[in-house]
Design a protein that fits this description.
By secondary structure, the chain is an all-alpha fold. Helix content is about 45%, strand content about 0%. The longest helix is centred in the middle third of the chain and has 16 residues. It is globular.
Length: about 60
């Protein structure tokens, strides 16, 4: 597993904490991103353009 740094708004962080608490953030985010990716681009050798635009937050 690799570490990464992600910027989240206070509102999004509060919503996550309401659901899983501060100790469950990482697991929740991993699972949510995994589910989103599975829905957008199942594990294939897809060479289509990106589904989401780049976000230079922060």
């Amino acid at each position: 597993m690799t570490r990464t740094h992600v910027y989240l708004s206070p509102e999004i962080l509060a919503r996550i904490d309401t659901i899983v608490g501060p100790q469950g953030r990482s697991k929740f985010i991993r699972q949510a991103v995994g589910q989103l990716l599975d829905g957008l681009a199942p594990m294939t050798d897809n060479t289509d353009p990106p589904y989401l635009e780049y976000d230079s937050a922060g």
